[in-house]
Structures are given as C-alpha cells and as structure tokens.
C-alpha cells in the first residue's frame, strides 16, 4: 500500500468523518455488551483498522483492543490516539495469535479488498483464534443496492469485487461457525415508515452496507444470551423495497381505475341530462311549467 497518505485522504473524502463512522458503528455495541456479560474486558483485534474509529469505540466500552493495517497513514492517525496498532497483513496478524485467545475479530470494509483464497484463510484462522462464543464481524458494501453494485463500489480502486451476503454467510457456516447473522446497514430511516417508495429508492436506497456477524460454537446457556440479537431483522433488503414499490404501483393503478370509472359515470350522466333537455317532453314541460310566485 502506498505511504503517500492517498488512502487516508480518500476515506476522509468518501467514507465520511470519524464522527459519522463512529456513530454508525454503534449498531454493534449490543453484541459487544453480550460478550462483556461473559468477560468484562474482552480482547479484540480489528483487521484493517483504518483511522481507528472501531478501536476507539471498543476501548471506550472497556475492551482490550489492538489493530493492524497495511496503510502507514492510517496507522499514524491511530497512534496519535494512543492505540496499540501494527503495520501487518491481516492473515499474518491472525497466525501470530493463539487458539481461543480473542473474543472479537473484526474487519470493516476489508473483505472486498481480498482475493477469495485469502478471504477463506481469514475466516478459518478467525475461527481458530476466537474463544467459544466469540464473534467475527465483517462489514462490506452491499451488492443488493443496485447503485452500490454498479457504480459506488468501483470508486475505490483497491476493491476486487462485490461479495453477496449469501456467499459470506455460507463461508462462515462452511468453515464451522455456529451461527451467522446478516445486518443490513445505513439505509435512509424514512424507508421504514414511508409507503411512497419510488423507483429511485429501489435503485439506490437499499441498505448500502451489510455485515456478517458469525459466532463460534458455545454452550447452550451462553448461546441464549445472544438469541435476541440474532433473531432481529436489520436494515432493508432489495426484495422488501421492490415489494413496497410494487404495492404502491398496484394502489396507484386502483386509484386510477376508480377515477376512470367516476369520469365515465359523470360523462354518462351529462349525456343523459343532455338527452332529457333535448327531448320534446322536456321542452313542453319547460313551456308549461308555472313561474314561481314570490311570497310577499
């Protein structure tokens, strides 16, 4: 990776401010708090730690954290904030860790940069390093979002290809994780209440990111602590938004049909009135109709 701070400047411009990213990462804290019910100061490693927003959030939550990244400019930002970071490859960093030694392994917008065989190795090593019940968190752009999949994803020159959530889920399950949850993220909040879904919404407002949270097998008692988080639904899928859009089109068609019927009835009435007014009987009635007298 270049050391001219290109990638740090790129993220500052296109990913968002530290404050914005840190606020988005709050969605993972309920999972971390469940870990802390088992161990109060869990050990965590963040692969591709970037500017250190997640390190900061975990540290504030009481976790023991370390980060690795290949970009010197990013690591400089982390060191200024006092974080334990190293310039290392993610796989190399995992291989240095002992079996069952970490509670949390994370990689935010990392997996889309990796060749597929490296991604497979990362997931297998993560499973080895995690304690029973530990969590692997991988966040990446969501190819369900049409604009992300066809345009925004390729803005970053270091991306390889979009990874569907079905593939990333399958990988964690295939290599032995106990269960996996998909979290769709960062969609506009109005979508949850607004029924006026437009075609533009379907194209560009499906959750632009998603995360896989994979949990290593653990005894049933500790597993139950996490159940409420794993059964929740997060974000908005393409299928959901497309269905809402189709439902809106159906409603608009029904309204259009009813308006057309009202217009047809109105036209028939006007035609009927005109026929009556043109009839001989009506003309005679109008001629013979007594004029109303004003009451004095």
CATH fold-level label of the largest domain: Rossmann fold
Radius of gyration: 31 Å
Please indicate the percent range of residues in DSSP E strands (runs of 2 or more).
15-25%
What would you call the structural class?
alpha/beta
- CA-based shape: elongated
The total count of helices amounts to 13
Task: Compute the number of structural domains.
Answer: 2
Summed over residues and divided by their number, the pLDDT gives a mean of 89
Give the number of DSSP strands: 7
Overall CATH class of the largest domain:
Alpha Beta
Task: Give a verbal description of the structure.
The protein has a 7-stranded mixed β-sheet with strand order 3-2-1-4-5-7-6, with helices on both faces. The protein is elongated. The longest helix has 41 residues. 31% of the residues are buried. It folds into 2 domains: 231 residues, 3-Layer(aba) Sandwich (Rossmann fold); 42 residues. It contains 13 helices and 7 strands. Helix 5 links the parallel strand 2 and strand 3. The mean pLDDT is 89. The N and C termini lie far apart (103 Å). Helix 2 crosses helix 4. It has 296 residues and is α/β, with parallel strands linked by helices.
What would the keywords be for this entry?
single chain; 296 residues; alpha/beta; Rossmann fold; seven-stranded mixed beta sheet; 13 helices; 7 strands; 16% strand; elongated
